[in-house]
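Hi C.,

You asked whether I'd gotten around to modeling the 781-residue construct. I have! Everything is below, sequence then structure, no commentary in between.
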Amino acid sequence: MLLGEIFELVQLVFVVAFTVFLANCVDYDILFANKFVNHTDSSKVTLPDAFLPVDVCSARIHDNVFVIFILIISGVFWLHRLVKFIYNICCYWEIRSFYINALKMTMADIPYFTWQEVQARIIEIQKEHQICIHKKELTELDIYHRILRFKNYMVAMVNKSLLPVRFCLPLLGNTVFYTRGLKYNFELIFFWGPGSLFENEWSLKPEYKRGGNRLELADRLSSRILWIGIANLLLCPVILIWQILYAFFSYTEVIKREPGSLGARCWSLYGRFYLRHFNELDHELMSRLSKGYKASSKYMNCFMSPLLTVVAKNVAFFAGSILAVLIALTIYDEDVLAVEHVLSSITLLGVCITICRSFIPDKHMVYCPEQLLKVILAHIHYMPDHWQGNAHRYETRDEFAQLFQYKAVFILEELLSPVITPFILIFCLRRKSLEIIDFFRNFTVDVVGVGDTCSFAQMDVRQHGHPAWMSAGKTEASIYQQAEDGKTELSLMHFAITNPHWQPPRESTHFISLLKEKVHREAAAVQQGVIAENPAFTSTHSQSDSEPRSLIANLLMGPPSLASLHLGREGSINPVSIGVSEGASALHSISPVSTSLHLRGSYPSARLPRPDHPAVVAGRAMTGSGTDARTISSGSSAWEGQLTSMILSEYASTEMSIHALYMHEMHKQQSRGEVSRHTWHRQESDESSESVNEDIEAARNFPRSSTFPTTSHQEGPAQQSSSQRRYGGASDPVSGSFRAQRTPRMPMGGWSEENQMGRHHDPVPEEGSEDELPPQIHKVI
C-alpha cells in the first residue's frame, strides 16, 4: 500500500512535467523533418536535436499564463497528496505493528492467511485485551460495520434510488451516470469533507439525528452542494486536462497492443453498488463478480446484429486484403516502410480488422440467453423481476448493459465526468437534499462499540425485510423502510454463510433456519425422485448440457466440498462422483442445528461421509475441535491451508448461489400477478389501503414526505431498551416503542400536501419541536 502511494505521487509529477515539456520544449518542425538541421559531422538528425535549449524552454513556460496556472493547481494538489501520504505512513505503521504484535502475524506469513482467520484472531484478542472498551466481545458484524460504515450507506442509497442520478436522453433512453469523480463528490459531501453530515469517522452530527429542523438542514445541505458544484465547475478545465492526459498515457499502449480491449466489458461503478450486499468486503464482491464475468460476456454477445455481422465480415475482408499486400511487400523489401504513411496504414488496418472481429460471433457456440441469465443470477444474486422470462429482449440487454458496460464506455464516461459532474450536483442532487437529510436521520442507528451505522446494514428482517422476499409475517417494516430487490434477505444469507459463527437477531435466525430447511426439503425431494414443481429444481436442475450447466456445476447433484474432493499425494484434486443423496445431505448439513441458535459452519464435520475418507484425514485437525474450518487457513503446510480455504470458499459460494436462485424463484412465484417494484420500474406512489385514510386525517394540515413519518398517538408497550438508537421515524411519545406504519409511498422527500406545487413551502406550518419527535430506542448487543 505504501509503495503504491509513492508511485502515485511520482506519476502525478511525471504526467504534469512530461506534458509541459512536450508542449513547450520540443521543436516539432525538426521532429517531423520540416526544418533542416545543419550538422558539422554530416550525421543524421537525432532526437535530442528536436529539444529546445533550456533558456528558450524556460522563457516559453514563463510567458504562458495557462501553463503557470496548471502548474500552481497541480502543485497544490501534489502537496495535499504528500501530506496525506505522510499521514498514511503513520497509519500503515500502526497497522503493521497491530498485525505483528497483537495478531501474531509476520509480514512473510500474511499472504497465506485468509480474512476469516484474521477476523477470528481479532475477536479472540478482544476477549483478552479489550481493544474496544465499550463492549466485552466483538462480533463479526461489528468488524464489518467499522470497515464498511460509509459504503453501507452508499449501497443503501443506491438501493433506495437516491443515488445515482438517472437521465432520460432522447436517443439513449434511460441512462445512469455514475463515475469515480461523482462518487468522490458524494463522499465529500456526505461523509468526510468540510461541513459534511458526519462530525468524525463514526458519528453523525447531532442535529441530523433530529427531525425538528429538517428543512433548515436541507437548505444548508443544498447550499453546500451548490458551492461544491461551483468549485467543480471552476476546476473543470484542469481536471478535464488531467483526465485526458492520464487516459492517454494509460490506455494508448494497451490499445496498440490489444485493439480489442475497448470492446471488452467491465462491471460499471453503478453495477458494483447495485449488486453489492450490505456488509460485503471489496475482495468478496470482486470474487463474486469475477465468477459471473464469463457468463455475462457470453450473454451480451448473444445480441449480435446479423446485419452488423455481415458488414463486419466484408470490411474485415477488404482491410485484410490490403494489409496482406502491404505485409508481403514489406517482406520482399523493407524499404517499403520508408514510404510515407505505409506504417500508419498497416497499423490502422490491423486495428480495423480487430474491431470487426469483435462483431463476428463464434459460429460453433450455441447461446441460450435465458439459461445464461440464470447462471449470471447465481453469481451476482440481484436481478429485476421483469428480466426473468425476457432475457432474449433488447430491453433487458440494455438494462443489463448499465451494470456490465463496455470498457470504451467506461473510459468515455470518466473523460466526460469533469464536465457533467458540476451540473449534476447543481441541478439534480440539490433537489434531493431533503430526501438525503431524511434518509440519514431515519436510517441511522447507534451501535454500542461501533458508533453510528446505516440501519439497513443491521440486516434485520423485522426492521427492513420485504414480505415478497420470504419475510412475510416476520417483518414490521413499512414500504418506505423495506429494502428493495430483496437486499436485506440476500445480504443476511450471504453474511451468515460467509461468517457461520455470527449470531443474528432472533427474527433473522428464524428466517435463515426456515429458508435452509426449505432448501433441504426440496433437495430431499430431488433425492427421492419427487421433482414436482419446486423452485430449487426449476432454477438449477433444468440447465442444458452447455455452458450454464457446467458453470452451475450440478449444484444439487454435488456441490464441491471436502467430502467430494480427493487430495492426492502432490496436492492434486480429483473429483469424486457424488449422487443426489450426498447433495441432499450436504444441503441438510447447511441447516442450522435445531438445538442451537448459533449458525455453525462446521462443514467437514457435518458432511464427511465416512471416517476413512481422505478428506476426513486432511481436515481432522480442524473438525475434531469443533472449530469452523473456514476460519482455519493453516494445515501441515501453507499450501494445504490455502487449498482447504479455497475448497471451503468455493463451497460457501455454491451454497449462496443455491439460496439466491431459490429465493428469486420463491419471490417470482409469490409476486406473480403483482406489480413488481424494482430499480428500473418503481412506482412513484404505492398507496396502502390500510392507512391512507388514517394518514390523511392525521396529517391533513402538515406537509410531509415518506421519509418523515408522522408521529402516531396510539399507545403501546415499550419493548426495546437503549443501547442502539434509531433516529427519526415514528415512535410512541410515551413509551418510545417503534411501530411500523403503512403510509402512502411517495418519492423520498416528496410532499403530499394539496394545493401546493412547490417543493419548499412558504409559510411552512409548524414542524414540531425536538421534544415532539423523540428518538426511537432499540437495542443491539
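If it helps when you're writing up: Strands lie at 165-169, 173-177, 265-267, 404-406, 444-447, 451-454, 565-567, 573-575, 724-726, 776-778.

Thanks,
B.
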